[in-house]
Each structure stands twice: as structure tokens, then as C-alpha cells.
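hey can u run this one w/ flavin-adenine dinucleotide bound, need the C-alpha cells asap thx
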Amino acid sequence: MSSLSTIVIGTGIIGIATAYYLAKNHGQTRITLIDRDQPMAFTSAQSGENYRNWWPHPAMVAFTNRSTDLMEEIARDSGNRINMNRRGYALATREKNIDELVGQLHDGLGDSAKNMLRYHSHRRSDTYVPFDSPDWEGMPDGVDIIQNQALIRDRFPGYDPEIQTIIQIRRGGDISGQQLGMYMLDYLKSVGVKRVVGEVRNITQQGGYQVKVANSSGSETLVADQVVNAAGPFADKIAKMLGVDLPVYNTFQQKIAFEDRRGAIPRTMPFSIDLDGQKIDWSDEERDMLLEDPDFAWLAGDMPGAIHCRPDGGDAGKWVKLGWAYNETPAKATWEQQLDSNFPDIVLRGATRLNPALKSYYGQLPRNMHHYGGWYTMTEENWPLIGRMGPERSFMNCAMSGFGTMAACAAGELCAATIAETELPDYASDFSLARYDNAQLMTTLRAANKGVL
Ligand SMILES: Cc1cc2nc3c(=O)[nH]c(=O)nc-3n(C[C@H](O)[C@H](O)[C@H](O)COP(=O)(O)OP(=O)(O)OC[C@H]3O[C@@H](n4cnc5c(N)ncnc54)[C@H](O)[C@@H]3O)c2cc1C
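ok here u go:
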């Protein structure tokens, strides 16, 4: 099997990770990576780079835990080149009754929930491990459920005083996705993997695969025994070239990053999510104006929860990132960013609900603020598609939604093991097209919270 040649279409984090584990774990180094641009330049460049093992289904928990194991292995082996840290995810709500949230945690953690959930309702809690240091080593796993108000004010001083509960997912934080990609590419280069810059226009199958690639100097046809579709937002287009319809769609999501010169966000604050829906903090005048315009009236109405904020650039840095994946309207993927010029103001005002100190930036976001975005490529149930794609020896690794950075290692490992026909983890079939034949699973997934972040 190791003599087979492979073309990987896409050098985002998913294509790179697939090639990395194919070469590293299975000795298949006859790989050509094709992308119309430089590696890690498209969706993977827009990632918030956060990771977590918090999901409402055990398959996604196992998958992201495995990915985190692999990221930690790379952090250890590379002197933490990937800047991995671990202050967790802090999910904040003004609700005291959190039965539904705890139910979801139980769904995801299964039998291990009884050891993984730690309740803190007293000021002095011997089991609560502080997160003063960003280090990922030595930090606990599991979930701290904090309802003691003094403990909340002490540990999360900047939050809205109305917050009643914090659920802190401890195996979570952020990494440098770019460095993860570069680390893997360095390895791929060292074992002789080739890279071709050009756009894939057509694929034919005669014996192996003939992949037609065009770039500014013309076009060429590359051949290989097997092909991997890791084309991110264009995965459906690549699949169609092989007569396969993938059940994926795209929504555009945005973020802003800016220099927090006024120190509104504590540098030690974990990735923080306001779980509660809200009405954005407009003035009465602004609200009336929005309501008068049918295109903007929705901004004066109820907005969903899950707005998020975190410090960026380490404890000595100054930048912060804000995001809010409220856009659920599917659209045809484009190479250009579909930025809404109102988004910075919307996300800033939304974020002040949990972090009131951000109000000082109303109308005064720094000029060097960075507004960016990219496509969430997803299935309706928001699970990835990894495995065989259709025609013999064609594979897919796509539909990574808002979790492709954190899932890349496990997704690459799984796709590579499928290609090499070796032993697969328990979650393999759940993430392949075979899941659509499992009516019970599909019903459960469609009913579940999508958890889009
Ligand atoms: C705003 C935002 C925030 C996010 N935050 C997080 C986060 O905090 N944590 C997390 O884990 N994930 C996050 N994600 C998700 C993550 O960024 C993606 O899931 C991941 O980058 C997808 O990687 P990919 O390799 O599949 O796609 P891409 O990075 O898009 O790579 C696909 C590549 O295929 C190439 N390609 C496509 N078609 C062709 C063709 N015909 N010919 C040649 N090349 C082609 C493209 O040029 C591209 O480079 C976020 C995403 C967005 C948009």
C-alpha cells in the first residue's frame, strides 16, 4: 500500500494534517499537495484558533479529545511551537437553573460525567484549580460548575454582575493554527512531499486519477492513484467533479480583533462565551432608526447567545478577539470575504453585555482594528465528513464548520488511517457518509443543539 501516490486538494489545515498523518503514520510519502494559493491562506487563516472538548455527543467529545492529545504531543515535541495554552472555555449565564446545560454535559460525557463535573457552591472550594498560568500542562480536565457569587467575582472580575453561573470547560484554550500547519509542512518537506500551486479545474478517472490544474503559467494534468478532497468551502465543487453530491453548505462568519489599549479585558480571562440571548445595547434613537429600516430591523430584535471574547497574543500582549456566529443564511462560497461593515459595531455592543468595560470603545474602535471572516462549511447536523467519498480510492476530509483547527489532528489521523486501510477509531463510521444510513443517529443529531461557535 505504501507505494500508492496521492493528490491532496487543499492546503488548509485539514489537507496538511491529512498528508502529515499519511506520511508519518503510514509511510505514504508519494504525496502532491495542490492549492490555488499559499498554504493556510484561506479559511484556516481566519480561524479564532480556539479548542475545547465540550460537545453534546460522546463521538464529538472523543474526537476532539483525541485531537487535543495529538496537539499536546506536537506542543511537547516542538517546545510548544504551536503556542498551546489552556485556561478553558468559560460559559456564562444569568440563569440559576442550569438543568438543560448539565443535561447536555451528561449527554456528551456519558458515564464519565460523575467524575468530570465539579460543583462549586462554596467560597472556599478545595477542588477548584485556578488558571493564573497559561500553561496547558498540569491543568485539570473536566468541568467546573461555579454558582458561588463570591468565587465568580473573584475569578472572573470583569463579567456582568448579573452572571449567576459559570461552566468552565477545563480542557480548552487556544493554539496557533498557523504554526501547527507550518510544523506539519516542515515535516512533509523533509520527507519529499511536493507542493503545486494552481486551481483544480477537472478530475477524470481512468485507472488512477487525472487532476487538471490551472495557474498563471498555463495548465497541467497531474496523476495519482488516490485523491483526497480537502477543499474546505469548495469541497462540494471538487466532489461534483467526481459525480458525488456532498450534503454540505456554507455560511459566512466574522470576527474582529483590536488592540485593547484601555485594558478592558483581563489578560488572564479564558475564552468567554455569553450563553444568553440578548437585545443589543443601542440607544433609543439608534433602535428607532433600525426599526424603521426593514433591512436592519432585526438588529433591534432578539439576538442569539454565544457571543464570545478572548485576549489574544499571550499574557504580555494587548489584543482581543470578538466573534458572534449569528449568521445562519447559507450562501454560495466565494473566494472574496463577504464582510458586513456593520459587524464591528454589532459585535462590540453585543460583547459589552458580558464584559461591560468594553463600552469605552463605543464609536472609538482603534483604527488598526482587524475585521475578517470566512466560511463555515457544514452539514445540517454540524458533524464533519471524513472517509471514503465515492469512486474507489477517493477520500474526503471536510465540513469542519467552526471546529476545523481544533479537529485537524484527529481528522487528519482518521482520514489517513482510512486511506491506509488500518484500524479505525470507534467514531470513524459516525463521521463518514455511512452515518446517513443510521436513521436513529441522524434523528438524535438533528434534534440536538448545533453548538455553532
Ligand atoms: C471566522 C471563523 C472563526 C473560526 N474559529 C475557529 C476556532 O476558534 N476553532 C476552530 O477549531 N475552528 C475555527 N474555525 C473553523 C476553521 O477555521 C475551519 O474549519 C478550518 O480552517 C477549515 O480548514 P480546511 O483546510 O478544511 O479549509 P481551508 O482552510 O479553506 O482550506 C481549503 C483549501 O482548499 C483550496 N481549494 C479549494 N478549492 C480549490 C481548487 N479548486 N483548486 C485548488 N485549491 C482549492 C483553498 O484555496 C484552500 O486553501 C473558524 C472559522 C471561521 C471562518
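Residues 89-171+250-378 form a domain with the D-Amino Acid Oxidase; Chain A, domain 2 fold (CATH 3.30.9.10). anyway lmk if its weird
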